[in-house]
Specification:
By secondary structure, the chain is α/β, with parallel strands linked by helices. Strands 1-2-10-9-8-6-7 form a seven-stranded mixed beta sheet. Strands 4-3-5 form a three-stranded parallel beta sheet, sandwiched between helices. Helix 2 links the parallel strand 3 and strand 4. The chain is globular and about 50 Å long. The relative contact order is 0.16. It binds NADP nicotinamide-adenine-dinucleotide phosphate. The site of NADP nicotinamide-adenine-dinucleotide phosphate has 24 residues, from helix 9.
């Protein structure tokens, strides 16, 4: 890893290089800009921009994610609060409590940490949250704006990936891109942002036939399927850029890994995100950036 914090290169025996897309370094750089905005906001409004993270139940990985989000807020001079509600909470109580939280004047951004318990699955989350406080682009209004390329907040993970690509000056214009996974928080909004940026995007999922035929043609592949170490060198064409969204093992005893066997990419991919240290830190940074944008817009 280089020490400049901009990009890190691995020199391989064969003289080939793969750029490691270092999400931590990108997040660190962006946090300096965010800290300036946070300070200006506090000076003008006599309070810090405030994020509320709602965690229902006590899943191990979610506990780790919400802790990291709160710490990151504090590091840049914003404030954060994590509300921990029991897994047995009734749908009525959940809805009522979310409404009470978002009515508070000092709350700028709200994030519902997924997954929620099955007992809450019937709630229309896209209509429940106030779009002016929707820090992860959950509401139908913000999803629609994002799909139309108009949103001032974007889904955090896709936005973080676009920031990584931009930091490393990887232009997607004209590239053939494959996104694996079609969830509403990762795969689909990723395909919209890439389309907006000029890529030709194919959105694949578990029903895609002969997936490898698609990924092998792609200049850039975003893998967001949630299948631990499922994809490797043979799935990507030489010199492809590989973005691994998957996270497995957080909060447990096993080593954290992604959807891709990262070690196979050296000498093959032109650039790739590691797990940990790739997309994850930038998802958090985007959450903070969204919260700050919402706070500034309301102020
Ligand atoms: P999700 O809602 O479970 O969606 C997974 C998607 O992958 C679905 O569209 C599914 O297809 C597709 N899929 C599953 N197995 C597949 C296969 N073998 N081949 C092709 N497609 C397949 O998951 P998600 O919320 O999008 O998250 C995906 C992964 O990213 C998870 O590991 C999650 O923990 C991680 N994640 C990481 C971050 C981060 O900050 N790094 C943020 C969010 C999520 P169907 O629609 O057909 O079922």
């Amino acid at each position: 890893l280089n020490t400049a914090g901009e990009f890190a290169m691995v020199k391989l025996n064969r003289g080939e290089t793969m750029i490691i897309l270092d999400g931590r370094a990108v997040a660190q750089q962006r946090s300096a800009d965010l800290a300036v905005r946070a300070q200006a906001f506090e000076k003008k409004n006599a309070r810090k921009a405030h994020l509320v993270v709602i965690l229902v139940g006590d899943s191990g990985p979610s506990q780790v994610y919400v802790r990291n989000k709160a710490k990151a807020c504090e590091r840049v001079g914003m404030s954060a609060e994590t509300l921990r509600w029991p897994a047995e909470i009734s749908a009525e109580t959940f809805v009522e409590q979310v409404r009470q939280v978002q009515a508070k004047k000092n709350v700028d951004g709200i994030l519902l940490q997924l997954p929620l318990p099955d007992s809450l699955s019937k709630i229309d989350l896209g209509s429940l949250l106030d779009s002016a406080k929707d820090a992860d682009c959950f509401t139908w209004a913000n999803v629609g704006r994002q799909a139309a390329g108009l949103g001032h907040v974007q889904a955090c993970t896709p936005q973080g990936i676009m920031s990584i690509l931009s930091h490393y000056k990887i232009s997607v214009e004209g590239l053939n891109v494959v996104v694996v996974g079609r969830s509403l928080i990762v795969g689909r909004p990723m395909s919209w942002l890439l389309t907006e940026a000029g890529a030709t995007v194919t959105l694949c999922h578990s029903r895609t036939k002969n997936l490898r035929e698609f990924t092998l043609r792609a200049d850039l592949v975003v893998v967001a399927a949630g299948k631990a170490r499922h994809w490797g060198r043979a799935d990507f064409k030489k010199d492809a850029v590989v973005i691994d969204v998957g996270i497995h093992g957080a909060g447990g005893e096993q080593k954290i890994c992604g959807d891709v066997r990262f070690e196979e990419l050296e000498g093959w991919a032109s650039a790739a995100t590691p797990v940990p240290g790739g997309v994850g830190p930038m998802t958090i940074m985007s959450l903070l950036e969204n919260t700050m944008s919402l706070a500034e817009a309301r102020a």
